[in-house]
Every structure is written in C-alpha cells, then in structure tokens.
Amino acid sequence: MSFLSQGFSADIVRALTECGYEKLTPVQQQAIPHARRGADILAHAQTGTGKTAAFSLPIIQQMVENPQSRRRSQVRALILAPTRELVDQIAHNIENYTKYVDISVAAVFGGAKMSSQERKLNAGVDVLVATPGRLIEHLELGNISFASLEFLVFDEADRMLDMGFISAIRTIMNGIAQHPQTMLFSATSSPQMNALAQDLLRKPKRIIVNAENSTADTVAHVVYPVDEDRKRELLSELIGRKNWQQVLVFVNYKETANEVVKELKLDGINAVLCHGDKAQSARRRALDEFKSGKARVMVATEVAARGLDIQGLPHVVNYDMPFLAEDYVHRIGRTGRAGQQGHAVSFVSREEELTLVQVEKLIQQRIKRVQLAGYEPASRDALLTKMQSKPAYKDRQSRTNNSDEQSSAERRLRFARAIKNKSNKTTRLKG
Known about the structure:
Layout: H1 10-18, H2 26-36, E1 41-44, H3 51-65, E2 75-80, H4 84-97, E3 105-108, H5 114-122, E4 125-130, H6 132-140, E5 151-154, H7 157-162, H8 166-174, E6 181-186, H9 191-200, E7 205-208, E8 219-225, H10 231-241, E9 247-250, H11 254-266, E10 271-274, H12 280-292, E11 297-300, E12 315-318, H13 325-332, E13 342-348, H14 353-363, E14 368-369, H15 380-388, H16 391-394, H17 408-430
Parallel strand pairs: 1-6, 1-7, 2-4, 2-5, 3-4, 5-6, 8-13, 8-14, 9-11, 9-12, 10-11, 12-13
C-alpha cells in the first residue's frame, strides 16, 4: 500500500520518497485512514514501526487542505513526548515530511535556551513538539496559547506515566478548552495507561500492531549470566571477540555509565556517554559520533531509551537490567527497526534474576541463556530457587505508577537510599 493511495498531496509524497519511504508499515496502514477521518486513536505499537509518520502525516495533510495564517503564540498541532531526544527526533522527521509544503515546525525541551524557543513560539507555530516540563514553563510565561489547537498527540505515553508526568499532562489539558483530535501512542499497556486514555480520548479507534508489551520479531534475545563485578570485563570481551562495531549499552546509573566508558577506553574501544548530567549539545554530539562510526559504543542511561533513531543498529546491551520490566521493551526497541535484524543482549547477575523472570513474563517469551566460559556466576540455581519461594516474589507486580504515586525517578532514589542505609548498618555492625 503506497502513501499516494492514502490521498496525500504530491508534495508530501515527494518528500516521503526522498526519505526512502515506499510502502506503509502495519501501524500506518491501520492508523492513517482513521486519523484522516478525524477520529481519536489509541494505538499500541513498538518503537521503530513508523509511529511518527502514522500520526503526523494525517495532521500535515489536513493542514495542507485547510491552510491558515499563523497567529502570534498560537499552535495548531501539539505533540508531547517524554524526552529531549524523542522530541528532537520527531521534530526532525516532521521537518523532512514538510520539506515542500508551507508548514512550520518547532521543538521545545529542557537543556536549550528559552529565548530562542520564545521567538519561535511568538511567531506562531503550525506543529509544536514538546516535553511536558518545558511546555508548562512556556505556558506560565504566556509564550503559547492553545485557543486554536486542532490536533493533540501523546507519543510514548506509557513512558510519560513512568516518569511522573501525569500532573504535568493534566496541567496542560486544563489549558485546552476545546477537544482537539487526540491520538495516544504507547508501546506498552497498563491499567494506568487505560485510565489515561479514557480521560483523554473520545470514542477512540483502538489499534494494536503487535501483542501488547511484546517485542519485535526481528530482535533475537540472549542472556549472559555473570557476576556483577565481571560485567565490565565481559562487555569488552564480547565486543572484541565478536567484533561488534556498533553497540548501544544501557545502564541504570550515571556513575556506572562513566565507569564503563572509562574501562572500554582503557581496552582500546572508543565509547561515548549519553546521560542526564550531559548538556543537550554534548548528548547530540555523542549521538552523532556514534551514528557516524567514530565511536564504536554509546553507553546510556534510561534517558536514551526513547527517541534514538539509529538506522541499522545491530546490538543493544542491557549492562544493567532495567528497574521496570516494561523498560526492557523500550530499550531493545532501538534495534531490529524497520524490518532489519537486531540483537538484544542482557547481562544478568544473581541479584537481577527476578527482574529477568518478570521481563520474560511480560514479553511471554523465555530468553535464551548463554554461559561464556570463564564468566560463570557462583551458586546461581540455588539462589534463584530460594528467591522464587519467597512471598515477595509471588506478590511481585509490574508497573504500579499512577497520579498519586511516586515517579520512577523517586522510586529509584528510594531504592538507592535503602541500599546505602543497609551498607551503613553493616558497617556499624562490623564496628
């Protein structure tokens, strides 16, 4: 099925052809006809399936068919996304789609100068892509108005819930008097996600491209059991032995990221960093070096799990298993995109066994274990059997966030404090 068959203008099709788009992906085939008719949409689809084009092209086409002069601080379409990287990527894609039509696109997110964003907003914007936090700052300063808003999109809505943006979303919605055409896209599902959809959408068309919370068929999964203190050595070993040329490595903490990059460089492997302590310009520079091949490895925290569009990325490594099982789906969604083959490799220490079981339950798939000689962890089976017999394991839940609970960042901070207190207590007992 071609884009021309969907009634898109010749100028839009021309731009899509230059982007290398030929046929509609499954999510585009299902979402575009409904979106073109003005329906609200609730879509569950994995990253790398063409979601940006699915929600943005119908919006662009409707703007082409119904041109309006830009008015000061007014926005016709608002697209919300959880991270800077994802906002930047969406805006870049839409700019490519609108190359031959008169539609303005702007992106606002933290880490960039407010003044330059203010100038763009004051001139009026057709399509605005934003993170919730920075958008609220502009709302409070009076730099933007939703009086003329026609389209509203929530991309990676599940991630916004995980990051504690529910109150920010409600603040933004309070500033929207009318009901624009609303589309909500999510890679995973939960009761909280369904409740949000019920609040935001009006008789939505439900689209499910893959089974909810599943991973792409193009990704091969493998687990390497390894003790925590051998992970850095194992990473260098695999990169060197298997001659991996482009590897995205996920860790849970910024300190771990710094240590891993340092270790890789000592082993002669060029690596770059991407985490929250890095300025946006530094993160973009690191991504450019990784994409171009100047850096063989990029080590990133969860901030990079969404929004990174790296064509043909062959390997994603979970150096640390994620705090939430759902984040496994998002992390490995960086590989196996657009029908290409990818490999998801996870290092699992004895302490992370329960997280692995939870991931397998979520994706309804047992992940292949590979034991590398020389890296065998001790007493693994005995520990797993013992842990599975505990009530805490049987009662273990998946995502529990909602509007009244802590964000994932707060939960992680509480976890870190608990570990620190336990360490201090052990020190006192020894003393």
